[in-house]
């Protein structure tokens, strides 16, 4: 076989990687003397996962994140089935949400200070024990107060989505285009888990036994966090107290109005979910509601390919306009029109969340990124609770359940007004900020 031809090298010009091509000979395949150039992929997502360790921590994160869409549905199903009370089931889940709002920022602060693996694993173990305790209490029909205590213990569940975003920020510091793509992927993953989690939980509870959704969700959560935490090469270094800014992040410049926008945005999601469930009121409610997450997931992936975000105000304006479509679809009396309205309305969700999370990363001091993103998630959860209650009250007291969709429309408009009035994300002088990605 002829020897490989030499290629000139230059210290100032990197040479393309060459790969040998194969030719067929009577004795079988053999290396040909010609070589072809292999170019790096133009797909930003393929480049994203070309970094060593990124696929492994993403797999673990997806396993850990999927139960986040399972636990609430599973809890409602098994408590309502055992105790015959949806009011009790709703009160227990609301208690867990309130406990999470209090505990999650503190857990995130510990993650930033001591490292992801060191804090996330024991915090997850405690949360899993809470889920298992809730399962046993329901199975043996323990007193109602025990359900609240057990479910409150699950509040130590770490924000795996925030930890994953922190890893991307660490790996792509100084590369805003790649970080934008990573944030878009993470938001699409959120929507995918939101879409699949409730469906999987309902199927497991119906096909196996009422506690199956909670049990399998707990196993997935612990397994995913263990896989995620094992990837130490991509973990951002801890930031001890002495090297981080002191004080509450809520008082950081621009953070309070941004959290207000997240609160109103969360109300959009909560109101839209309850309005859809109340209006459809049947087995089709879940699949129709999942179309909103599907639209958001698709839009998030497309948005991530651009490598550049736009102003948060523009995203919120688009969301405020598109959130009128579910109301119009429901008003027509056609489930097909409602489904189409939810699908299109969801396409504004992921770009809004990607841009908002990018702003959180910009406003958060170094070494406190997990805490900052957990505060944003906490604001979203609070908004979801408010939006759910508002839409539920409207569905019960308005002439028709169609009017419940107006709660999500009004919440989107409120988020836009808050963003515009407080100039969230705008540079101080109104001009472009150096190094900004347009968020």
UniProtKB/TrEMBL annotation:
InterPro entries: MFS, MFS_trans_sf. Residues 1-38 are annotated as: Disordered. The keyword Protein transport does not apply. Keywords: Membrane, Transmembrane, Transmembrane helix. Pfam families: MFS_1. The chain crosses the membrane at residues 76-99, 119-138, 215-234, 255-278, 284-303, 335-360, 372-391, 403-426. Residues 1-16 have a biased composition (Low complexity). PANTHER family: MAJOR FACILITATOR SUPERFAMILY (MFS) PROFILE DOMAIN-CONTAINING PROTEIN, PTHR23542. This is MFS transporter.
